[in-house]
Amino acid sequence: MSTTSSSATSPGRPGRRTLGFPVVNALGGLENPNAVPESAAQLQQTSEELVVDERALAEAHASGLTAVNITLGYTLGDLPPYPHTLRELDVWDEIIAARPDDLVKVVRADDIRRAHAEGRVGVIYGFQNAVQVGEEPEVIAERVGRFARRGVRVVQLTYNQANHLGDGSMAPENRGLTDLGRATVEALNEHRLMVDLSHSGENTCLEAARVSRQPVSINHTGCRALADLPRNKTDEELRLVAERGGFVGVYFMPFLTLSGHAGAADVVEHIVHAVDVCGEDAVGIGTDGPVTAIDDLDAYRVLLADQVAERARAGVGAAGERSDTLPFVEDLRGVDQFRDLARLLEQRGYGEERIAKIMGGNFLAYADRVWAP
């Protein structure tokens, strides 16, 4: 049996499984979604409300996950962006400090390698909006420096809507970066943080990729050539990011098909297309979900319908979100999701070296390029 379809015990932590190579989720979570208080009006769970419990950690280890870029700080809603982000940094520092045998905070690429060797899970601090950087160039420079010192390593410029830095994927004007957006990219480059263009509008993505002195990323997306939805990226965007040494992560999301009912086969097709456009050294995975699966899908569907309607009313939803779609791929979830994907890629004809790159090696190489001093 090949490495891609088997599991091995971690040399660092007996009983914890690996796939023989690092698995890095460029956007995901570590929470147990079954233990989170559920409310349709709760558009964004804060880090204090997420439950990182024994089940979630055990299943993360069992999945072979090496590291994950988690979302913290302000993304949307009425919370004050900057104070809320600082508080969430405190919360995640506390979560990691309380679990030293399970978790390691990632501030450089070698921390991911250490997590793999020791059988722990690396936690990468990332934002899915950047409004918390402020609205004055001097403030932006100071705050980005503070976030970098606190361990933030990934900063997504926009969510779906426009902000003062640029347009999100749902902003109809499709403008590029603003002057403050360019100042933010400059500050992120100065502190060697990843400029993540997931959720951005097309022109914001293209301009940021061109003006950035460091390679940029699209940590969780799909291919617009296969499903023409705003949350997916055009071949032009994908190619430009890759040509400049960047990284593209394919998500496990409903936007992979126009029907909204994406399956594991659709994830494979988007990966294959991204590899054809970007080359095998630029593509990885960013599932946009935790390892632990939701147990009661019937109850979840009822809640989800209300949440989708609430997001639409608030102007933060994306085309392709509907009450009858799930925000994950139903047949590619739970503790076997990474093994299942590796097996499907193997069946598609990909060799072990290419699969290892896609499952984590390419993100690790990109992290070396951006985070290295």
Automatic annotation (TrEMBL):
InterPro entries: Metal_Hydrolase (IPR032466), Pept_M19 (IPR008257). GO terms for molecular function: metallodipeptidase activity. It comes from the Bacteria. GO terms for biological process: proteolysis. PANTHER family: DIPEPTIDASE, MICROSOMAL DIPEPTIDASE. This is Membrane dipeptidase. It comes from Streptacidiphilus jiangxiensis. The lineage of its organism: Bacteria, Bacillati, Actinomycetota, Actinomycetes, Kitasatosporales.
